[in-house]
Amino acid sequence: MSLELEIDFSARIAELQKQLTLKRQEEKEMDEKIAAILRKNADMPRSLNLAVARIKSRLTLTESDSSQLGSSLQLTSVLAENVSGKVRDLDVAKTRVVECLQRVDDLLDLRLCTEGVQAALLNEDYEQAAQHIHRFLALDNAVFQMGEQWEKESKASGHTMKHSYEVLRQAEKDLKTLVEQKFDEAVKDGDVASMERFFKIFPLLNQHEVGLERFGRYLCTKIADFADTNYQSMVAGGGDAKRNNVLYADTLTLLFEGIARIVEIHQPLVELYYGQDKMLILIKHLQGECDVQTEKIVNVFIKNRQYEGKAKLIDTYARQATKYANLEKLDALELDVLLSEVTLMHTRAELYMRFLRRRVAGENAKERDGSAHQAQHHPAAVTAQIADAKADRQKRLDQLLNESKLGRRMQELLGQYIMMEQYFMSESVKKAVAMDVREGNSLTSSMLDDIFFIVRKCVRRSLSSSSIDCVCAMLNNGVAMLETDFFVALNQGIKSGYPATGALAEAYQTAAAAYQVIQHGGKMSAESGPTEKQREEFLTALNNLRAACECIKTLKESLSSDFAKHLTQQNEVQKAKLEHAHGQLDELSVRFESAAKHGVEALVTAAVKTRLRAAVEPFLDVTHTPNESEFADLEANDPFMDGFVAALDKLIASFEHLLVQANYQDLLAVVCSETARQLEKVVGKAVFNRLGGLQLDKELRQLTGYLTSVGGWTVREKCARLTQITSLLNVETVDEAADFYQQSAVTWRLTPSEVRKFLALRVDLAADDIRNLKL
């Protein structure tokens, strides 16, 4: 079988031919457009050629101008170089002319000085002679190396430069010797005016050190004179019997005031003629004499007041207290006056040193005006220079004072003072504890005020020494004493515990008291036996602990005020040290407050908890699955809550007049928490229906209303769990309890298992629904 295929492409070929025709037509149209564009732009190449020709012509002209400009600049550069060279030559010539004129002026001054100094010495005009010598000493050495022409002209006139130089050198030597002799004669004769006259001449002869040394020796003799007079008066016992307790401090004060007066009087003279930086040299000489006189006074003080002997005795006792327990100790009252005098001595020394620092730093009107005037014209450079000069002077003065005998002896006295002050504080506190008594209706005992008075007195006394280290040391000692001895004394009554209450405990205590009465004879009263004493000691200690917190805060505030008033000059290191020592009082207050809270909890455990447990037991005697009539009777006459609130109020009120306010508020908070816990326990032992839940809600609102009235709104937080339990016991269905638990905005204090536990107390809710409850 043969198969023939017939395929017809005629339609496809016709379509392709049609498209080919269209493309040829488009090609023709495009060729015509291109031809038209070419015909239209036939002149463009000619225009471009003309534009290029014009640009080429202009570039040729620009190149020619640039070459001409380069030639001009080169010529100008050569001319500028020639002119600048001539200007440099002219500047060098000018400089040499100025130097030459200066040399000429110096040579003329040299001749005038030569002639003037001889005339001034003949006329005993030492100031004028010194001025000529000063000018001579200021001349440049190049003056004496001038050319031969000057030398020949000088020889022709009979005066060579060598001759002038030798004359002035001899005059300088003679004038120095003469001024020293005249000054010594003025000192010997006590001629103050002449002394000042020749004192002013020394710096003109470049003898600053010599002048200050001789003047310093003279001032030291003046210091020694008035210091010896004061010393003799001190040895004789002083003139005022009322000031015998501070006799040595007064003598030191007179010494420091005398030296300060000398510095204040002579500082303007020294700074004017010698310069401000030279004042430190004079102070160094004066400080040497100050050290000598201070050493004499302090030695007599130590000997007559038996200062070192008492310090050694205290140190020996402190190191081996057990070994020397039976020996007679120093009476703390004997040290009181002695310690006050030591701090006063250190205060006077510190004030004297501050005075010297202010003087050396240039804290006077003249320097401030001069510094301000200079800084106005050269602010940056002058300010930095003045600051550097001050810092250098202060550093050298601090080194001088720290290495002086005055500084060392004051530090020695202060070191022994800290040890003795600590002993005074410790012994005074022990005496206050031993003499502790509660007066009248006071809730606290006497040692509270006594001990804080002692601590404040000791710290304030150290403050009068003006030593940051001393203040910090005593503040640390005071905090340590409050934290150990004082806290132990207060906590002793708390550790003894509050006598337990309850039927069994009261029966035991009554039997013990009766036995004591029988043993010793007599009658038994309600207040007999150790129970009442133990109760009083516990409450007093508890009140003392809480009141001590307020005393610590008051102490800190008063010390802050004292520090701000007396310790005004502190650097950053000292300030940080003082703040750290001062901050220990806050930590101490927290510790005392924590101990007081634990004491209140112990009080509630011993005196309240047992009675509270007995007071809530009747809750189980009342039905909590009432019918309608029983519920009505319960609403009219609640057999439990009225009596419970009355018993609770009586229990709380019994402590109101026994505790300070803060302890009483803590007691209320703890009692409220304990009440909620005890009620929660008995609620967990009962069973409820819907009406029983309503009755519980009414009782809880009555209880929280009472607790709020006595303890404030904060006590409602203590009843949060009980409130949530009551809400669960008031639901109508288990689903309502689930919705309430999941949708409530409050934070639930009950876990899901506890929710199921308390819902199970409802006898009218299905147990299976409660077990299957999803929370």
From TrEMBL:
Subcellular location: Golgi apparatus membrane
Ranges of residues in domain COG4 transport protein middle alpha-helical bundle: 168-495
GO biological process, one term: protein transport
Coarse class of the protein's main subcellular location: Golgi
One cellular component term from this protein's GO annotations in UniProt: Golgi transport complex
Domain of life: Eukaryota
Keywords linked to the UniProt accession: Golgi apparatus, Membrane, Protein transport, Transport
Membrane topology: Peripheral membrane protein
Pfam family, one: COG4_C
Family (UniProt): Belongs to the COG4 family.
Protein's name according to its UniProt entry: Conserved oligomeric Golgi complex subunit 4
